Amino acid sequence: MKILVAMKRVADYESPAQIEAGGQALAWDGPFVINPFDAIAVEEAVQIKERQQDVEVVVVAVGVAEAQQQLRSSLAMGADRAILVQATPPWDALAISALLHAVVKQEQPDMLLLGKQASDTDGHQIAEMLAERMQVGQATQASKIELSGSKARVTREADGGLQTIDVDFPCVITADLRLNEPRFAPLPAIMQAKNKPLQILEAAALGWSGQTACTCQQLQLLEKKKKGQRVADVATLLQQLKQEAKVL
Amino acid sequence: MAKHLIVVPAQTGKLDAQIPRLLQAAATIKGQLHGLVLGDDGSSDTAHALASYVQQVYMAQHKRLQHHLAQPCAKVIADVAKQIEASHVWSVGSVWGSETLPRVAVRLQAGMVSNAHQVVDEQTFCRNVWAGSVQQTLQINTAIKVITVRASAFAPAKPLSKAGAVQRCPVDAQPCGMHFVQFEPVKSERPELTQARVVVSGGRGVGSKEGFAQLIEPLADALGAAIGASRVVCDAGWVPSDWQVGQTGKIVAPDLYIAVGISGAIQHLAGIRNAKVVVAINTDDQAPIFDAADYSLVADAKQVVPELIAALKSE
């Protein structure tokens, strides 16, 4: 079987964001990493490959040339080959999902794995949009995936509880944090990854016009809350919560 | 003038408390309010409850919509939106809304904004990115717009003086690639985390699984509060992972949030940004949680939490 994992290059979540391009783009000094949710998707695909015979894991990223670093990291984790769809922001989820759909048509995977959201834009739209473009089923926020024959049984977070569903192949599955713990690639694997195939495609060649349905008007750093007050003991705390904050 | 389509998955009993807040968000843009309720034969309760708030409710009833699976629901929503020529399609940014509306957006070739907390005008919406530290103002350029809303950011709308009409709509729900197996509801006597008025959360500073049970649970009981936790505590298995508060867990918006033994990682702070009053209890007076707190108590939780419980109980 073939698993296609889609991933995004993001700034490490602890780096403070800056705003540039006239208030319309986020910028970071780095370091850059695989979106933590997508790293879980890569790990899951690699674990399936380790459990079963004849599994090929292909990772794909849409983004700038530097995203090759994160694709190499995925290869070091155990993916077989990588594809970069080179594109320059601004982009939106409709555009990215259309580009991924173009890759899906070429690759014809049985299963797509992605993180449930990107840690920078928190959009959680792309996987679902891709599933709709493919006209296939989806299982989002998966905490457990069991494969049997040509379907996957997925336990996932739903509103008010845990839902279990079966999805027929091909399907799109997104990873929740509790699905697994991504591995750190050992040095030999990092060296080996340098020789694994990494193909670069141009977004324009896959039909992207550069048009987006959504445009960012403004980005604004939210001010930190003003410093609160120290209270000396439990009695003072309760008194302030009642009399000043009026929440008790 | 705008024509809003508010989509709601049917549930038994009364209308989800987030729906009137969603309606308030939509009503910021002047226009007609229409509702769409999706479910099986038992969905008419929700449809009639929703009719108190909108001019017209469409009821999509079909056995394939029973479990609100995203694939068949998205088709029905897009069909109705086209048929009534909706300009805006809205839902709560719940798990269901977040997984279903992106599919609707593709079907309608519509731009989409997730988890809006402010409606600026008919095509402009604000939402947070980068773990809640940056606000993004997005403009949707397509004729139809799809929006999920962070309901807690809006006040609940009031019912209309005259309830709207309810009508069934034709449903074309084809067999699909998703098959429901089972649902295990979370059983809790406590209020739901994202809707609770008071939330008590515990972090590594409570010491252990037993410490969590001995400190956080009785404090929550004394306050009638929901219980949350930091990611470390969930990852360590001290509490179920759906108790996690933060960017990668639940976003809460209580009147009072009490963080006990939580250091305050950026991703946790993103989850409590909408709390009105934050209390932090931590032994480390340099903990970042104190920068986000209105009231800070530098103390050992094991000592002060029992005092707090005793004081609350004696009232």
Which range best describes the helical content of chain B: under 10%, 10-25%, 25-40%, 40-55%, 55-70% or over 70%? 25-40%
Proportion of strand residues of chain B: 25-35%
Q: β content of chain A, as a range? A: 25-35%
Shape summary of chain B: elongated
Our Rg estimate of chain A from Cα atoms comes to: 21 Å
Largest binding interface between chains: A-B, 77 and 82 residues
- Low-confidence runs of chain A (pLDDT<50, min 5 residues)? none
Number of helices of chain B: 9
**Mean pLDDT of chain B, as a whole number?**
94
Radius of gyration of chain B: 21 Å
Helix content of chain A: 25-40%
* Average pLDDT metric of chain A: 94
Spans where pLDDT lies below 50 across 5 or more residues of chain B: none
- Categorize the overall geometry of chain A: globular
Number of strands of chain A: 15
The SS-based structural class of chain A is alpha/beta
Describe the biggest sheet of chain B? 7 strands, parallel
Topology of chain B as a string of helices (H) and strands (E): EHEHEHEHEEEEEEEEHEHEHEHEH
Question: Care to describe what's here?
Answer:
- The complex is a heterodimer of chains A (248) and B (315).
- With 248 residues, chain A is an alpha/beta fold.
- Chain A is 27% helix and 34% strand.
- Chain A has six helices and 15 strands.
- Chain A has helices at residues 36-51, 68-77, 93-107, 126-134, 187-193, 234-243; strands at residues 2-7, 9-11, 18-20, 25-27, 32-34, 56-63, 81-86, 111-115, 137-148, 151-158, 161-168, 171-175, 198-202, 214-221, 229-230.
- In chain A, helix 2 (68-77) packs across helix 5 and helix 3 (93-107) packs across helix 4.
- The termini of chain A are far apart.
- The mean pLDDT of chain A is 94.
- Chain B is α/β, with parallel strands linked by helices and 315 residues long.
- Chain B is 29% helix and 29% strand.
- Chain B contains nine helices and 16 strands.
- Chain B has helices at residues 18-27, 44-51, 70-83, 95-108, 209-223, 231-235, 266-272, 289-292, 301-313, and strands at residues 2-9, 31-39, 56-61, 88-92, 111-116, 118-121, 124-129, 134-140, 145-149, 165-168, 178-185, 198-202, 226-229, 256-260, 277-282, 295-298.
- Chain B has a seven-stranded parallel sheet, sandwiched between helices. A five-stranded parallel sheet of chain B has the order 13-12-14-15-16.
- In chain B, helix 2 links the parallel strand 2 (31-39) and strand 3 (56-61).
- In chain B, helix 3 crosses helix 4 (95-108).
- The longest helix of chain B has 15 residues, at 209-223.
- The termini of chain B are far apart.
- In chain B, 56% of the residues are buried.
- The chains are: A alpha/beta (248), B alpha/beta (315).
- The interface between A and B is large, with 77 and 82 residues.
- Strand 11 (161-168) of chain A pairs antiparallel with strand 11 of chain B.
